[in-house]
Amino acid sequence: MKDSNSEYYIGIDIGTTSIKTVVYDETFNISYQVGKKYQYAIYENGWTEIDPTVWRTIVLEQLSEIFSILPYQKVKAIGITGQMHTTVFLDKAHQPLRPAIMWNDKRTIDVVAEIKKALPRTPQTENILNIVSTGSPLANLIWLKEFESDHYEQLGKILITKDYVRFILTGELCTDYCDASTSSLYDVIAEEWSEEVLSAFNLSGHFFPRVEYASNRAGYLNLSMLGIEGKELIPVVVGTGDNVASAIANQSQPTQRPIISLGTSGVVILSNTHNEWLTTGKNILAKIAKDDQRVITQGALQSGAKVIEWWSDKVIHQDITQFEARLATRLGENHVIFFPYLTGDKTLFKASELSGAFLGIDFNSQQDDFSLAIYEGTAFAIKRLLQQMRPLQTNEKCLLMGGGAKSQIWPQIFANVLNCVIQVNRANREASCGAAMLGYYHSHQEFPVLPDEVQEFEPEELLVKKYQEQYQTFIAYSDALIKKGKEQKNEA
Fold first, then answer.
1. How far apart are CA 76 and CA 328, in angstroms?
2. pLDDT digits (tens, 9 = 90+) for 125-163
3. What is the CATH class of 8-238?
């Protein structure tokens, strides 16, 4: 560690395929970090699951490594974040009943249809009906009730990923407003677990934990789990979902500047004022603290930067990013268009059965055409999503973050496709930073002021025009494919 006199904050991020635990000093420079990848089960029928004790094992290993080099007394707070929606089922003794159902699971397509028929549309249920989809905790809970009744009878609590890990660390059962309000189980008007949902599906309110501000202390770290005999108490804050944590890390104060996060999924994040609700996207009660009750609206392209990994590993068996310099010479000249909905769509089209496609192929099409189309098609889909959520204002800037922001060509493609300045913060503030900042907020009742290291990518007039033409083609093809998919579904 750099400074033995500094105070430290730890941020834990339970990602979809990896867990990262990062130590930040009081100026929020990274002092130490440890990460580990893990795998979850993917089945041919669209089911995705994981044994939640995998997270437990990895997090305890990572904290043990950190405390082997950092005196625990120097740590002032721990924040936690992670993948949203992934549902952990605990029995009445608070042990996992079965594998957790992942956020990208598709088993509940029919259950979602049942929910939309059975739940009356009222002001209290409007938000729930707009956001419920496969992977939603409500859909997962009803699936458990219908198809695993023995497990349902033993059910004690349901938790989201970060809440389970925090329970392991502290023994406290709770969640934050973010994960509650996106669960499809929560009444965002009354700000309580939905009585309408409980009544419509005969569910017990005892299944759900208490809801707290994200920066509140949930409990204290159980040092004995790490083999430490100590009396110092390390607060573990409630934490929040990964996209809210990323928003905090990159703009701790609410602002209208859109954030585009290119991780496993592609996410558009808009930070709104209190009680400002958008009609497209998932409105999230972020509720950081009593004095910071912002609403964040999130729209998702489920495939995101994952398409780069898919194309590299499964198709061309080469790392596509090695060819970005060559692809950069062909921007705006590509006639191949990529339709990036490889895992369906939840926000715009609400169609889990959607799949990907390449269009405009002829005998002259080469590997570089397809590779460049991967980048461009993802940008087109994000533009369509953003325009539906809230059209860009003149001279507006967008912040691009996540693994995709490290690309040599994606930021410039986005600048031209969106016709706006794209900012990339080279400080690389990820969700773990936002989690640690919640710990800082708990200690100081304010966020730290962090300097930006922003690189800006300006739109290029000629390429803006070319991409606008290609975007219109993308829209036309997209609409035709979606219409055809719906017709085939209805015929079936």
1. 46
2. 999 998 999 999 999 999 999 999 999 999 999 999 999
3. alpha beta
Same fold for the domain at 8-238 and the one at 251-492? yes
Query: CA 81, 83, 87 angle in degrees (round to 5)?
Result: 110
- Give residue 256's pLDDT band: very low, low, confident or very high (50, 70, 90): low
Beta carbons within 10 angstroms of residue 195's beta carbon? 12
Locate 232 and state its tokens: 């110092």
pLDDT (tens digit, 9 = 90+) per residue, 204-241? Answer: 999 999 999 999 999 999 999 999 988 889 999 999 99
CATH topology of domain 251-492: Nucleotidyltransferase; domain 5 (3.30.420)
Reply yes or no on whether the pLDDT at 203 is more than 90.
yes
CA 178 to chain centre: 11
DSSP 184-211: TSEETTTTEE-HHHHHHTT--GGGS-EE
Please, are residues 417 and 262 in contact by the beta-carbon 8 Å criterion? no
Which residue ranges make up each domain of the chain?
8-238, 251-492
pTM summary value: 0.83
**Residue 212: which of 172, 265, 185 has the closest Cα?**
172
Residues 6+ apart with CB under 8 A from 15: 82, 83, 242, 263, 264, 431
